[in-house]
Amino acid sequence: MKLIVGLGNPGPKYDKTRHNVGFEALDRIAADSGVTPRAKFNGNIVELGVGTEKMVLLYPHTYMNNSGTSVRAAFDFFKTPCESVLVVCDDFNLPVGTLRFRGGGSAGGQKGLADILRKLGTDEVPRLRIGIGPLPQGRDVSNFVLGKFAPQERAEIDFTLDRAKNAIADWIAHDLTYCMNQYN
């Protein structure tokens, strides 16, 4: 069983913001499935079968900085090992359009990821970071990540989200090392 967690903030106010690219990546997968999300674990989930593998897409609705509450509930329910969890999140330290897989390490300033690592009690959780930056000099981080993409960036991020959908499928079919070699 694979638990894929897309980070973002719930509600129309946050749709298409930089901080919600995790939700958008999962939306690409869910749209292809035709499965309607249902409420569970302080969020929404979509349960899918991929070959012989079960996959659960989790959209925490606890707001970004408290994402770990939702993830911990799903983690405990499904009894998922950490290596079978993939957190998909934004990263303003990476240029727009960049994908980067990591098997562990610090949250790198991503507060939703930091909360997940804290609530799971480990930093050994695979993650797929989607570049939304760089943060313009002198710009407030919160205003930047909660802002929308410029039109030319939006086209690039849409292309990147399609790549992220494929990258997640590769993570399920292969492994983290394979994905790091293909996408980093």
From TrEMBL:
GO biological process, any: protein quality control for misfolded or incompletely synthesized proteins
InterPro entries: Pept_tRNA_hydro, Pept_tRNA_hydro_CS, Pept_tRNA_hydro_sf
Hydrolase is among the record's keywords: yes
Residues spanning the signal sequence: none
CDD domains: PTH
Residues at the site labelled Discriminates between blocked and unblocked aminoacyl-tRNA: 9
The protein's Enzyme Commission number: 3.1.1.29
Gene Ontology MF annotations: peptidyl-tRNA hydrolase activity; tRNA binding
Gene3D superfamilies with a match to the protein in the record: Peptidyl-tRNA hydrolase
The protein, known as: Peptidyl-tRNA hydrolase
Natural source organism: Blastopirellula retiformator
Lineage, top ranks: Bacteria, Pseudomonadati, Planctomycetota, Planctomycetia, Pirellulales
